[in-house]
Design brief:
Layout: E1 14-21, E2 45-49, E3 52-57, E4 61-65, H1 70-84, E5 86-89, E6 99-103, E7 114-118, E8 121-126, E9 129-138, H2 148-159, E10 180-184, H3 189-204, E11 210-221, H4 227-237, E12 242-246, E13 258-262, E14 265-270, E15 273-284, H5 294-303, H6 306-323, E16 327-332, E17 337-340, E18 344-355, H7 366-373, E19 381-382, H8 384-395, E20 405-410, E21 415-419, E22 423-428, E23 431-440, H9 446-463, E24 475-476
Parallel strand pairs: 1-5, 10-24
Antiparallel strand pairs: 1-9, 2-3, 2-12, 3-8, 4-7, 6-7, 6-20, 8-9, 10-11, 11-19, 11-23, 12-13, 13-22, 14-15, 14-21, 15-18, 16-18, 17-18, 20-21, 22-23
Helix pairs in contact: 3-9, 4-9
């Protein structure tokens, strides 16, 4: 059944929203909060970088979709929600007023839900500007209004303290991570390197130019997993990445919760201008030889590697071509630069484009552009259709939300949509499935690509309290192949 079938779509909720500056709640207007201090609670939603962004709690409304029209169905629902909402926005910045978090599957045929979530209480920070938004669903036609006191009361219920004071529920911050046992995922290491060889043969035969292949690893914890501690560790250790946490359905065991810290911005739209950061080309920082300057080593290996430059070029060309229908000009970095992260170096390029207004006079929204740009060559391959067809045959898994768009949008079309990389999906209260992938070209070496996946798994392994190096002797997860 189509995700847009009227029989499957619930009535549009009527939402009342109020956004106020944090100073209206008693916070010091001269001191913007570090949002990482507000990462708490079982229903956490977050999109932060270096203590800025959005942190939210609770569910005022939610809509899940599946299928090839999942983006369109979500946009239609969001437009209807915005049209029916009563919003008072006393701040007027991107991310204020009515705002939703979202995540979308990599593949159209995925059996995993995509969707949007409107949080009850949202705290935002952009540069020195900080605000709080409260959203309440009401019965249509019911007289209703929100006040600053309502926002303050919701804040206190959530954090147990006034703005500017440490949350009262932060006692778990020093908790030791639970012991973790790692298991092979859908494919074990030998099977996955064989899949890489098959992918290289497809490229050398001329059927593809580039292919991105991912693998999964299952982590099982002895004690119940603390996802907030995981997200908090990612937000602090990988503070130049966008830390995300989104889940649908409110499952008590956390099933389906997506979390991670991505270095790649698929598209950001702010006031009619699109921004993106493209990454392709990776070097493990642990590979730097002793005695050589690390920065010079990264510049030499990535900058002079024909394989890495070739892979990066595919990703840039893919993004620029997808943006072309929405703009008159696209500006890109003159040359790729080296992006330094705690675990790896990447070849990176920034892209900017002033968006052309559509028939109604408004530029495309962030979610509309996310649909147009996904999947890029950085997570799929080139040509897109051929690579997308080859991926499930070689990986033998449903990527689900991995490598799909994750982020937020507001009622005016602004938003951030990253690519769900360096992350994991929680399966139940004691297990989480980690993902990592690599760009495959004709010159790819399967063993080197396997080592690269371990480097990309490192953020989640560290957040789980595990060693950064590749473990030896992984065992198969129950019910999964270890051929």
């Amino acid at each position: 059944m189509s995700s847009t079938d009227p029989a499957t779509v619930p009535p549009v909720p009527v939402l009342h929203a109020l956004t106020v500056p944090l100073s209206a709640l008693g916070a010091d207007p001269a001191t913007a909060p570090d949002l990482r201090d507000l990462l708490a609670g079982p229903d956490l939603l977050t999109w932060t970088v270096d203590g800025r962004g959005l942190v939210a709690h609770g569910r005022a409304a939610e809509h899940t979709v599946r299928g090839a029209d999942r983006f369109t169905a979500a946009r239609v629902w969001w437009d209807d929600v915005v049209a029916a909402a009563v919003v008072e926005d006393r701040v007027g910045a991107p991310g204020t007023g009515l705002t939703a978090f979202g995540a979308f599957t990599f593949a159209t045929a995925s059996g995993t839900d995509s969707g949007l979530v409107v949080p009850e209480l949202l705290v935002g920070r952009r540069d020195d500007l900080a605000w709080a938004s409260l959203v309440v669903a009401v019965t249509p036609g019911t007289p209703f209004g929100l006040s600053t006191d309502d926002v303050a009361a919701a804040w206190f219920r959530r954090f147990g303290a006034a703005p500017g004071r440490a949350p009262a529920d932060g006692s778990d911050r020093a908790a030791e991570p639970a012991a973790v046992r790692l298991c092979s995922g859908t494919l074990d290491e030998d099977e996955w390197t064989e899949a890489v060889r098959d992918g290289v043969e497809l490229i050398r035969a001329g059927r593809l130019e580039k292919l991105v292949l991912a693998r999964d690893v299952v982590a099982r914890t002895e004690a119940p997993l603390d996802p907030v501690a995981v997200v908090r560790e990612l937000a602090h250790r990988y503070d130049q990445c966008w830390t995300y946490c989104v889940g649908f359905g409110g499952d008590a065991g956390g099933a389906g919760r997506l979390m991670g810290a991505t270095p790649e911005m698929l598209v950001q739209v702010l006031d009619g201008v699109a921004h993106a950061r493209v990454l392709a080309g990776t070097l493990d920082r642990d590979a730097a030889p002793a005695g050589e300057d690390p920065q010079e080593y990264a510049a030499r290996v990535l900058g002079e590697s024909e394989k890495q430059q070739h892979e990066h070029g595919f990703a840039i060309d893919s993004l620029v071509a997808s943006l072309a229908p929405y703009t008159d000009a696209v500006a890109t970095s003159p040359e790729p630069f080296i992006l330094e992260l705690p675990n790896v170096w990447h070849l990176a390029s920034d892209v900017t484009a002033a968006l052309r207004p559509g028939p109604a006079g408004d530029p495309p929204s962030a979610l509309e552009l996310a649909e147009a740009l996904h999947p890029t060559a950085a997570v799929c391959g080139t040509p897109t259709a051929a690579a997308a067809a080859a991926i499930p045959e070689l990986e033998r898994m449903d990527r689900g939300l991995y490598a799909g768009p994750v982020g937020w949008l507001d009622a005016t079309g602004n938003g951030d949509w990253g690519i769900a990389l360096r992350g994991a999906v929680q399966e139940d209260e004691r297990s989480v499935r980690l993902f990592a992938g690599c760009g495959i070209v004709a010159a790819s070496d399967p063993e080197a690509e396997l080592a690269e996946t371990w480097a990309k798994l490192r953020p989640m392994l560290q957040a789980l309290g595990q060693q950064a190096a590749a473990p030896q002797g992984l065992v198969p997860a129950p019910g999964l192949s270890a051929r």
